[in-house]
Design goal:
The complex is a heterodimer. By secondary structure, chain A is an alpha+beta fold. Chain A has 6 helices and 16 strands. In chain A, the strands form 2 sheets. Chain A has an 8-stranded mixed β-sheet with strand order 6-7-5-1-4-3-2-8. In chain A, strand 3 and strand 4 form a beta hairpin.
Chain lengths: ~300, ~300
């Protein structure tokens, strides 16, 4: 436990301006929530709670929460495949103090997202991320479950299903437009304190682009991988979106075997195939991809 | 066609150089052979059928949008004034993105309420650039020759460097450079990658004696390059920028009361004459090799 006096000094840490402590949840929007739910279940997630007022379901495995939202339109500028394909609409960050983090990033030029909260619902501050997606700030995750406020538990279901093969959040992969590498690097480094990894340091089987590493403790640290269009290709529309989620596992081969038994299919081509570094699932529902990455941290 | 033919595609027109409604301006620009247009927010907002119709007209014109202007008096403010200007900036960035513009032009502040501290100015420009990042917009900061604290491009470049954002660069305007008689030697300190826009115009007399005269000349008596008293300097400016590695756009920003009352095709033809003079006589950029890049469109 940090003493209050030290807490004040820690707040000033410029390399970790918002006290980042990992990902609280990832939110998908989709007009076909049951189909996405099935995909999530094959990956080991279990539906554990439903939103009190909207068509929103909470899935969980280990320390990972996934929100499937069928009551909101997809991000306006986002593109993750064809129109009714699920889209990653939000990432919620655990931070030391959500209000302080929110003020900090707004001062630096982040866009506030207006929230539409019903009576007695949690007002989670959010800013615009890539392609119309949102970045939420969540604190007090250690004191109580934020989901208890807005969600009702599904009866008879274990609210804490264990993680398969030690699966945990590893990071997100973001597709960006031409000549946008510096812009997005500035976005993540200035607002949240991410740092650029050296080019010879890569994880998994998809090493392209630039990898940014988040600040904060080793246990909850996560990565953002930025990928530009292939050289020589000009993407006229300049579309940008969160393309996939990376999940860490201590033993990708064992994890792939386990997931195959559950019906998950993996890319096995000369260019992309599963090995001891990681694997990539085949695209489901037109857009949903999970990447497995070898990472010795196990689910907490 | 040789590989060193002047290219009309390097030049565009500002809508402010023309009178009339937006669709007529776009048509005149296109029919004069230009492929790009620098848009003024007023042209969109003032469209008779609303902003959506204006955006549709721009997209239907087939003209590439060079940039979008202009955000004024943004930097150096504090408290409520700052919050107010951030809101205005956000509205302009949204409009900028909606119309497909990749560059927002920002002019140095004329406000008596603005701080002269270059670090505070840089902080505000950094914030503006951050606001522009999710929308994929670059911010071009231009020294207005009657700016309160920044009136010459070396001072604008200084705060751009202090702000140090990848999507923040400088916008050059030949009118303001000539009006303040800033030495073109100062161009050598600029990184050509961070020059996001060059606007070209001339005027008819050699000397501008006062700030008032500067403002009046800028707003009413500009002419196209080749028509004014500083043709050699325009040519030198373009040549130096090219030699330094600038490969971005040139746009003709010509505020002129006479041009507001002659037919649009006549004005556009004058712009075309300026483009031909600069493109073929001075700049002579090479034409990209066919097949050097491929376009990827949405599925």
């Amino acid at each position: 436990m940090t003493s209050p006096a030290l807490e004040r000094e820690l707040r000033a840490d410029p390399s970790d301006p918002i006290g980042l402590d990992g990902i609280e949840f990832v939110e998908y929007t989709t007009p076909r929530p049951q189909a996405l739910g099935q995909v999530l279940e094959t990956m080991g997630f279990r539906p554990i709670a439903r939103h009190r007022s909207r068509e929103v379901t909470l899935y969980r495995q280990g320390a990972m929460n996934v929100v499937v939202n069928a009551s909101e339109p997809a991000p306006a500028d986002g593109e993750g495949g064809h129109d009714d394909a699920p889209k990653i609409a939000a990432i919620a960050l655990r931070v030391r103090d959500a209000a302080a983090a929110y003020r900090h990033v707004l001062d630096l030029g982040a866009w506030a997202v207006p929230t539409h909260v019903e009576v007695m619902e949690l007002n989670i501050p959010a800013i615009h991320g890539v392609g119309g997606s949102r970045i939420y700030f969540v604190d007090r995750h250690r004191e109580f479950s934020i989901y208890d406020v807005d969600f009702t538990a599904i009866p008879t279901v274990d609210p804490h299903p264990p993680a398969l093969a030690g699966l945990h959040w590893f990071g997100v992969v973001q597709y960006i437009g031409n000549d946008r590498m510096q812009d997005w690097t500035a976005f993540y480094s200035m607002l949240f304190g991410f740092a650029v990894l050296p080019d010879d340091q890569r994880f998994g089987v998809m090493p392209k682009g630039r990898v940014l590493v988040g600040p904060g403790g080793a246990a909850s640290r996560f990565y953002v991988q930025l990928i530009e269009p292939e050289p020589g290709i000009v993407d006229a529309e300049g579309r940008e979106w969160i393309a996939r989620i990376g999940l860490g596992t201590p033993d990708p081969r064992a994890c792939v075997a386990l997931l195959r038994e559950r019906g998950v299919q993996f890319n096995e081509t000369p260019h992309v195939h599963s090995d001891e570094r990681g694997a990539v699932t085949r695209t489901q529902l037109g857009s949903v991809v999970f990447e497995l990455v070898r990472d010795d941290r196990s689910a907490s | 066609m040789s590989q060193h033919t002047g290219r009309i595609d390097d030049f565009g027109m500002d809508t402010i150089s023309l009178a009339g409604p937006l669709p007529a301006k776009l048509r005149a620009i296109r029919e004069a052979g230009f492929s790009q247009v620098m848009l003024s927010a007023r042209d969109l907002v003032g469209h008779a059928e609303g902003v959506e119709a204006a955006i549709a007209a721009v997209r239907e014109s087939g003209l590439r949008v060079t940039g979008f202007q202009v955000l004024r008096d943004f930097e150096g403010l504090s408290g409520q004034l700052h919050e107010y200007k951030v809101d205005i900036a956000k509205s302009m960035l949204e409009l900028c993105a909606a119309v497909g513009a990749k560059v927002l032009l920002v002019c140095s502040s004329t406000s008596a309420h603005a701080s002269a501290d270059p670090d505070l100015i840089a902080r505000d420009l950094r914030k503006l650039a951050m606001l522009a990042i999710p929308r994929g917009i670059r911010v071009a900061f231009e020294a207005l020759s009657w700016g309160r604290n920044i009136e010459e491009f070396p001072a604008a470049w200084d705060v751009v460097m202090r702000a140090d954002m990848p999507n923040l660069g400088i916008g050059l305007d030949s009118f303001h450079m000539f009006a303040t008689k800033t030495s073109l030697d100062e161009l050598q300190w600029l990184d050509p990658e961070r020059i996001f826009l060059v606007q070209l115009a001339d005027f008819m007399w050699q000397e501008i004696r006062s700030v008032e005269e500067r403002i009046a000349t800028a707003r009413h008596f500009r002419v196209f390059p080749g028509e004014g008293a500083h043709s050699d300097q325009v040519a030198e400016l373009v040549s130096r920028l090219h030699a330094q590695g600038y490969r971005g756009d040139y746009s003709f920003e010509v505020f002129n009361d006479d041009y507001q009352q002659i037919p649009l095709p006549d004005v556009a033809r004058r712009a075309r004459r300026a483009a031909d003079w600069l493109g073929e006589g001075i700049l002579r950029r090479s034409v990209p090799l066919p097949g050097a890049m491929r376009l990827q469109r949405a599925a």
